[in-house]
Amino acid sequence: MARGTKRWLAAIGLAAALVTSAAVPAQAASGGNNDFACRPSAAHPNPVVLLHGTFATYYEDLNFLQADLAARGYCTFSLTYGAYPQFPLVGGLKPVAESSLEIKAFVEKVRAATGAAKVDVVGHSEGGLQAIYLAKMQGIQSEIGKVVGIAPPTHGADASGLLTLAYTLLGKSTWDTIVKTIGLPIFADELDGGAAIVALNTGPVAQPGIAYTIITSRYDELVTPTETSFIREPGVANQYVQDFCPNDPVGHIGEAYDLNVWHLVRNALDPANATPIKLCAVGSPG
Fold it and tell me: What is the pLDDT of residues 116-138, one digit of tens each?
């Protein structure tokens, strides 16, 4: 399957999502994606930083979710992290610890620009892992209010899942070129026993003062077993999409575009105004 095709298929509910978003009045003084003039509102005081997954970019993964949140009055920001100069259009390739430094600097830039005391961080796949890693390992716990991880490989992904993801998003020829040119340190880093996974899971994962929500699908085919996403520690909300929408067959890539997942993300970011999912969407099973 050509690169991007599966993401396009996963986004078949986009039209409905944008119609819904357009009907929601913006509450921030200035809004839009990566608008550093945006000033958080009283309703949504924390800017939201969104982090893409492996082999993705800020404009091809959580970009539609970012637009949805911005339309609802959030100040939203994202970056392509972990890209090498040889492949600037593919992110999430560098070791987790190295990319985490980029993300930390970006969070501090967002805070300085918006004047916010804290940010909330939402990540998909490796982005979810990066959000959790950032909160524990970079010494900025006091600057993070909420962490929302969508299908993160918290305890490590299996190699076949990562290889499947690489072939699906990049195509085998691009994959082979990347491996020959730079190797692929992230490939080992996200595995069970990888350096980032070991560091993250040495001692408690969840940090005091941060609210964590982990969302995944029972049908996620890449981060398996699906339980590996969850943080089984006090105060962490671990959620399967199917706990709310039993018939949603959404898979790993589709979770970034799934309207039910978006609803759960919004609830996690604004728990005081959380609402039930009244009409379940059907996400992409891939």
Answer: 999 999 999 999 999 999 999 99
Residue at token pair 């004047």: 115
What is the pLDDT at residue 89?
A: 84
DSSP 8-state class, residue 81? -
Q: pTM of the entire structure?
A: 0.86
What is the C-alpha separation between 19 and 48, in angstroms, rounded? 22
Alpha-carbon span 104 to 100, nearest angstrom: 6
Residue 229 and residue 216: Cα distance in Å, rounded? 7
C-alpha–C-alpha distance, residues 17 and 33, integer Å: 16
Alpha helices (H) in 183-258, listed in sequence order: 185-189, 195-200
220: amino acid identity, one letter = D
Handedness of CA 110, 114, 118, 123 (dihedral sign): negative
pLDDT greater than 80 at residue 54: yes
Tokens 């799934």, residue? Answer: 258
List, in sequence order, every residue forming a beta bridge with 50; answer none if it has no partner: 78, 122
Nearest of 176, 166, 150 to residue 62 by alpha carbon = 150
Match 């690169």 to its residue by tokens.
Answer: 3
Q: In whole angstroms, what is the distance from residue 136 CA to residue 149 CA?
A: 14
Residue 163 confidence class, pLDDT cut points 50, 70, 90: low
Q: In degrees, to the nearest 5, what angle opens at C-alpha 265 toward C-alphas 260 and 270?
A: 125
- CB 183: neighbour CB atoms within 10 A? 11
Q: What is the mean pLDDT of residues 274-278?
A: 98
Radius of gyration of the chain (CA): 17
State the pLDDT at residue 31: 56
C-alpha–C-alpha distance, residues 124 and 243, integer Å: 19
